[in-house]
User: What shape does this take?
Amino acid sequence: LISLFHNAKVAVLGASGGIGQPLSLLLKNSPLVSELSLYDIAHTPGVAADLSHIETRATVTGYMGADQLGAALKGCEVVVIPAGVPRKPGMTRDDLFNTNATIVATLADACARHCPQAMICIISNPVNSTIPITSEVMKKHGVYNPNRVFGVTTLDIVRANTFVAELKGLDPARVNVPVVGGHAGKTIIPLISRCTPKVEFPADQLSALTGRIQEAGTEVVKAKAGAGSATLSMAYAGARFTFSLLDAMNGKEGVVECAFVRSEETECKYFSTPLLLGKNGIEKNLGLGKLSAFEEKLVAEAMDELKGSIKKGEDFVTNMK
Assistant: This one.
């Protein structure tokens, strides 16, 4: 019951967009949230008015335009950022870089100024670069805390759980596949060998399943045929991660989620692994753990791309006006 009455103020930056609207709806529906602050460059008053009629306790306020960004962030404990442009068919996540890097840097700068202690959850792609961008911007302001900045990779875990469950005839709600590495193509590394319950696949099926998990985002981009990328499943995954974080902040024990964070677990400066969450964000990085030979190879093959994406993000902030 305690956590039911914990007052958490959560901001969604990019709340009017394809991910932002369903994400805001899921957050409004949760008893963990007492105040929901919605920010975007357009349409937020309407989204906020609409959500405010839902019979749950969270109060909803909409903020629109750069001059209201500071007010949107004041007093927030968790900030979730799905702002940016989505992929179109034929685009990689990296093709979004120029537009989304600027958007994320601007929003991270505002977080550093107005809610430096908040947990920052970045959804905006390319996550492999936007997390280094967020971190470097926070560093410039002297408020960087690596335990409070998360790249939300939860959709990779959600997809892995779903696809494994489909192949094995299991209830997906009871399947848990850790996914490590990054959040783009071959940097997405599902650890099927560590799935609970234990599952086994022949080599060819394992390879196909791994490829499907890695390219699942592209599967949706193609199916939407120019009308965007994964928004509804991403909103679900973003909400799942946010709820886990809020539970942990409320003192719930044993909350583990994977996320792309500052890391000493590999030779990459940022890497996603299972994390034990706590009151102050990352309580303990649980590391890579035991990998199969197949998974070891996937990790080795992901390193160069991941390092390049990280450097690209860091360089962007270095060269910023």
Observations:
- Residues 37 and 72 are 6 Å apart (CA to CA).
- The mean pLDDT is 96.
- The chain is about 40% helix and 15% strand.
